[in-house]
Amino acid sequence: MNLPLTPVRFLRYSEEQFPRKTAVVCQDQRFTYAEFGDRVRRLAGALREAGLKTGDRVAFLSLNCHRLLEAYFGVLESGCVLLPLNIRLAASELTYILNHSGTSVLFVEQEFVGLVDSFRGDLRTVRSFHQLDGIPQAGWLSDQTYEHMLASAKPYREELMTFDENSIAEMFYTSGTSASPKGVMLTHRNVYMYAMNIALHHHTRFEDVLLHTIPLFHANGWGAAHTITFMGGTHVMLPRFVPEEVFRLVQRERVSELSLVPIMAMALANSPARSKYDLSSVQWSVIGGAASSPTLIRDVETTLGFKCYSGYGLTECSPSLSTAELKPGMQCAPEERYVLQSMTGYAFPGCELRVVDAEDNDVPRDGATMGEIIARSDGVMAGYWQQPEATAEALRGGWFHTGDMAVIEENGYIRIVDRKKDIIVSGGENISSLDVEKVLLAHPSVYEAAVIPVVDSKWGEVAKAVVVAKPGCKLSEAELIEFCRSRLAHYKCPHSIEFCESLPKTATGKVLKRELRSKYQTVPVTMRSGG
């Protein structure tokens, strides 16, 4: 008889086969797989004893820690649905998500108790609040903290054959770059098959040690939680990203792999603390969450000393769809390799990717014709929670429509040129903001850059760059514009440049271009000479 596909099986396997292996390292605490499994079953038992039913939503508002990792298995073991919350969302956004999802129980880290207190009166379905760490001081918090619940609970282990692999296992709300976040429903089958396919591609091993640099509430973070567990690897938790703490943990725990977003990779490559630590254990790092650049890939490899390449995915796809790791047998010069490794790449096993025109016809593999990336895979979501029309639109024709515009090369590598909404149309010509940003980031004094459209009386709209200089470096608008003109067609180049200390970002470093557009787009700019 076939067993249902559920990630609950991953922990059960490693707990049985590797009970004394270190499963989780969280600051000064270490848990073997036997201990990890016991805590997970106690969490499941506590939820059942609290009266939760199959399908109830259980939310966690927490930094990366062993308790949140335990929820990835314990909540599912209980039959409930896990909802990790973005800790950087505003009170109104968290209120919307908790109400829209119909969450029953909220676990909150002590650091965020005040935030929850500011909006708890507006919550319609949450019936209990449990503090994850420390001693509760607020009267509205349950006396039963997370640890109390585990200590007093009877371990619960669901019979595997009762799991419905097509039922919802996890729910994630789309990022803050959208004004209307949507609840992405991922099934047990989605999560199981995604982890299997990624483990197959990366040859995930018992010896692997993963540093959780990305928050577990974000797609780039939770995507690895199941794969490492399945193969008996070790999770190392990082509550907050601090470059020297990353280096320290890499050296102490002999970390073999980590995921980054561009701002994290830049911070590590530019950190003066790097030379004090041994990073030789790291075999590879993948950069996702936002477009990378050949310059950044080169800087990471030459400065940090480990292989680095881009990856691509979306919350709706469990999350990863493609990798820019060199295909087996490919040979190329270093500079060409950096370009390839910064691209969107090619599909993971178990995934199909196409680049299509407005009629969903495949575009030529010429590296120039733009189309939208569409995907189908074992990890594509069941749909958006309580939004059937949005689900039908996103999954029309049996393919998930990503909204990312790209070109595809003859060798099958895909390169995203922009989000649909971020394409700049100047005088009838399409300009990729990502292409312009990559050129700006190649300047040795540029730390960060974002390009947005602004109104222009002659061309309709033109490109404007918002730039952060590296510490101690001075830049001028004329210098950067000339730098771009020496590398791009003039119509693609920024017509104006704004310098600032930092760019607005989501929790994991994705630039919030809607905030930049709101700030600058209503100010008309005049076409500069020579455009």
Keywords:
531 residues, alpha/beta, Rossmann fold, GMP Synthetase, Chain A, domain 3, nine-stranded mixed β-sheet, four-stranded parallel β-sheet, 25 strands
Write the layout of secondary structure elements.
Layout lengths: L7 H10 L4 E5 L2 E4 H17 L7 E5 L4 H12 L3 E4 L6 H11 L3 E4 L4 H7 L8 E4 L14 H7 L15 E6 L9 E5 H15 L6 E4 L6 H4 L2 H6 L3 E4 L5 H11 L3 E4 L1 H8 L14 E4 L6 H11 L2 E7 L6 E4 L10 H8 L4 E2 L3 E6 L14 E7 L5 E2 L3 H7 L5 E9 L5 E6 L4 E3 L2 E3 L1 H9 L4 E11 L3 E10 L7 H9 L10 E4 L13 H8 L11
Helix pairs in contact: 1-2, 2-3, 2-6, 4-5, 11-12, 12-13
Give me the CATH architecture of the domain at 1-15 and 30-188, please. 3-Layer(aba) Sandwich
Number of E-state strands: 25
- In CATH, the homologous superfamily of the domain at 1-15 and 30-188 goes by the name ANL, N-terminal domain
Shape: globular
Strand-residue proportion: 15-25%
Main β-sheet description: 9 strands, mixed
Distance between the termini: 69 Å
CATH-defined fold name of the domain at 1-15 and 30-188: Rossmann fold
Q: Spans with pLDDT under 50 lasting ≥5 residues?
A: 522-531
CATH uppermost class of the domain at 1-15 and 30-188? Alpha Beta
